[in-house]
Specification:
Layout: E1 6-7, H1 9-17, E2 21-22, E3 37-42, E4 46-47, E5 51-57, E6 64-67, E7 71-73, E8 78-79, E9 83-87, E10 98-100, E11 106-107, E12 114-115, E13 119-124, E14 127-128, E15 133-139, E16 146-149, E17 153-156, E18 162-163, E19 167-171, E20 182-184, E21 192-194, E22 200-201, E23 205-210, E24 219-225, E25 230-236, E26 240-241, E27 246-247, E28 251-255, E29 261-269, E30 274-276, E31 287-292, E32 301-307, E33 312-318, E34 321-328, E35 332-336, E36 342-350, E37 355-357, E38 368-373, E39 376-378, E40 382-388, E41 393-399, E42 403-405, E43 408-409, E44 413-417, E45 423-431, E46 436-446, E47 452-455, E48 459-460, E49 465-471, E50 476-481, E51 485-486, E52 490-493, E53 497-501, E54 509-511, E55 514-517, E56 522-524, E57 528-530, E58 542-544, E59 558-560, E60 572-580, E61 583-588, H2 596-599, E62 606-614, E63 622-629, E64 632-638, E65 653-658, E66 663-664, E67 667-668, E68 679-684, E69 687-701
Length: 702
């Protein structure tokens, strides 16, 4: 392959910039204007056959130039008073130059240096595999100290296979790329000569993948050419394999990662070049043959039969509720039914991101009502319901818009306190999953002859005076706030009104007030939310306080310190934004000031707490709390507005989340010391305007 060499343009410019070397033969101030002077000449070094330039005055009177050694030149390319240009003959060597003039000889005080004309005329073969030898042909190649391949891969002369004046043999580096070859004399200001055409460095090619579909964890065979050049195989989805069961030039065999997804594969070579296959890898999906029992009971388990069930990493029940995989083999798996699962088909997901849905919907067991007693009852009295599957009932709704949580429940019986405000009529049993059963028999609500509360605030802060309105309230002798904190400050007390100040020590959060009569009867009020915050028990377990422990990145919000909103005079995180989908609030990573190592595997003994002041009602979405690390990506979704439609706090409160409620898929968090990556919170999965303050994100021991 015949090629012309070329010198890099930047090098040529640098060479021209150094052409003219100032000579010491300077004109004296009193010199006659007819005197012949040499001021500079160059370039030096110069190529044989190249132009040599002389700058001075009256140079048109020069008759000849004698180059070393005694090479006389009398033919000029340019001859003017200011400049002479000659072509350097092949016989020229290093040495001083003499200009012949009628006024005598002028000798340069510095030597002319000859540059050997390194050329690259050809190389072969035009295409080569890494690790094979190519031959470079040219002139003065004995002066070459380096061969530079594309990707800045340099082979030094001591590593050449062979080197003569006309030929260099060199091994193509394993990580070289297709591109121009450059040879260099290795000097500080080197001569660089490029090949006219690129060397094509061989890359692997894929001609087939099998089997298809392929099951994660089993062998995949890749057929093609030059496959032994492959250092890594990257599957769609980002899973990488760099350990092969076998590797030859025509075949690779490797095990498919669990997270590999449908799509082409990429073969990565030592130079980090990637070759994409046109063939698609198709991942296997499990086959679902049956689910039993059907109907299934929430809180129990179902057994799934099928094929390749060991691929399943997530089972989603009706209502988008995720169950816990308790055991799994190729043909059978056992899955716990979430307490809030609803009727519907089950969706089985794999690590490859593929899903399969059961052919038939799974029905959930519903409670039944046999009897209710007594049917004639006053409010604040205990009602007993008998029937079947009553252990899955979470609350009872009454006529008049009242409801109450179940006081106790077994498979066949539950009890519930009839709340104030209940009217006569049937009752509604509400199961954990929202299923509703209506009684055939109606309650008859009797008039109350004892103290009864008819209205009171839904929330209050410690120090607030609240009005408890009802009948027969003059019987009340004590008012007890959560938890066992007696009220000591009162306003008016009549048979229809008690004005009472919420004690400072009252437990924050949702609770009931107990009203105690002179005879010892206890009447519980409707639920009241005592707003306020819990104290920070251990400052070393705080990991966001937005003072010294602030965030690294976010999508919206910032630390602020408005005295009217601040919890304790310090900074807090403030969000005032219309959120839709993922909207990050505050995040850090890399265990930065994260106290996970202190807790370690004692997860069941600790909770996550944060103080929050929701200034406008939140109506959708969720606060997605994340703890991500080497053992998994663990989440908890805080959404207290889900059952009521909106949520605000009317002041700062403390929210408590058990660490055992954080899950990575079906896997609960078990070791906080493994949280080595992202931790923080974002809005997600919905839309709502969020105007809220957050402070003192911390862990606390139970």
């Amino acid at each position: 392959m015949s090629q012309l060499f070329k010198i890099k343009p930047l090098l040529l410019l640098a060479l021209l910039a150094s052409l003219f070397i100032i000579e010491a033969c300077k004109k004296d101030d009193d010199t006659d204007s007819d005197q012949i002077q040499l001021l500079s000449f160059g370039p030096s070094p110069v190529l044989r056959g190249g132009d040599l330039r002389f700058i001075g005055t009256n140079l048109d009177k020069v008759t000849a130039i004698v180059l070393p050694s005694n090479v006389e030149v009398t033919t000029f390319k340019t001859k003017t008073a200011e400049q002479l240009v000659i072509v350097v003959p092949e016989a020229t060597v290093n040495g001083k130059v003499v200009l012949k003039t009628p006024q005598g000889d002028i000798q340069t005080k510095t030597e002319l240096h000859i540059s050997e004309p390194i050329t690259l005329t050809s190389f072969s073969p035009a295409a080569a595999r890494p690790g094979t030898v190519i031959a470079i042909n040219g002139t003065y190649l004995n002066l070459v100290k380096e061969v530079i391949f594309t990707n800045k891969k340099v082979v030094k002369s001591e590593n050449f296979v062979s080197q003569t004046k006309d030929k260099i043999e060199v091994t193509v580096p394993t990580d070289a790329k297709t591109g121009i070859i450059v040879i260099s004399n290795g000097e500080a200001d080197p001569i660089l000569v490029e090949s006219e055409t690129p060397l094509s460095v061989t890359l692997p090619t894929v001609t087939g993948v099998s089997p298809t579909p392929v099951k994660a964890g089993t062998a995949l065979t890749i057929d093609g050419t030059d496959l032994d050049l492959t250092r890594e195989v990257v599957f769609t989805g980002g899973s990488k394999v760099n350990t092969f069961t076998s590797a030859t030039a025509t075949q690779l065999v490797l095990n498919v990662p669990a997270e590999a997804k449908d799509g082409p594969i990429k073969l990565v070579v030592a130079s980090l070049e990637e070759v994409s296959s046109t063939q698609q890898v198709v991942m296997s999906v499990p086959t679902i043959n049956g689910i039993a029992p059907d109907p299934a009971k929430t809180g129990s388990s179902v057994t799934v039969s099928g094929v390749d069930l060991d691929l399943v990493t997530r089972v989603t029940f009706g209502g988008n509720k995720v169950g816990t995989i308790q055991s799994a083999t190729v043909s059978e798996m056992t899955v716990s039914v979430p307490a809030d699962a609803q009727d519907g088909a089950l969706t089985f997901s794999t690590a490859a991101g593929k899903t399969v849905t059961s052919a038939a919907a799974l029905t959930m067991v519903k409670p039944t009502i046999s009897t209710i007693s007594p049917t004639d009852i006053q409010v604040n009295n205990l009602l007993t319901v008998t029937g079947t599957d009553l252990d899955i009932v979470s609350k009872v709704q009454f006529m008049g818009g009242t409801e109450a949580p179940v006081a106790s429940a077994t498979l066949t019986e539950l009890t519930v306190m009839v709340p104030v405000g209940t009217q006569s009529g049937p009752i509604h049993l509400i199961a954990d999953n929202g299923d509703e059963v209506i009684s055939a028999v109606s309650l008859n609500i009797l008039a109350s002859t004892s103290a009864t509360v008819t209205s009171m605030p839904a929330s209050a802060r410690p120090g607030d005076m609240i009005d408890i309105v009802g009948v027969n309230l003059d019987e009340i002798t004590e008012v007890i706030f959560p938890i066992d904190v007696p009220a000591t400050m009162f306003g008016l007390k009549t048979d229809v009104l008690i004005q009472v100040v919420v004690p400072q020590a009252a437990k924050t959060g949702n609770g009931v007030i107990r009203l105690i009569t002179a005879t010892g009867e206890v009447i519980e009020t409707p639920v009241i939310n005592i707003t306020g915050v819990d104290p920070v028990v251990d400052p070393s377990l705080v990991f966001f306080n937005f003072d010294d422990l602030t965030y690294w990145w976010n999508d919206t919000g910032s630390p602020q310190n408005d005295p009217a909103l601040s919890l304790d005079g310090s900074s807090y995180y403030y969000v005032d934004h219309a959120c839709s989908g993922w909207t990050g609030f505050f995040w850090r990573n890399g265990q930065n000031n994260f106290p996970g190592a202190t807790i370690g595997t004692n997860v069941s003994q600790y909770v996550l707490k944060f103080d929050i002041n929701v200034l406008e009602p939140i109506t959708g979405g969720e606060f997605a709390w994340r703890l991500k690390g080497s053992s998994g990506d663990f989440w908890y979704y805080w959404k207290p507005w889900e059952s009521t439609g909106s949520y605000s706090t009317n002041g700062w409160i403390t929210v408590t989340i058990p660490l055992t409620s954080f899950y990575a898929g079906a896997t609960p968090l078990s070791d906080l010391s493994t949280i080595t990556e992202d931790f923080g919170v974002a809005f997600n999965n919905g839309s709502s305007y969020v105007k809220a303050c957050v402070d003192n994100v911390r862990f606390e021991q139970l």
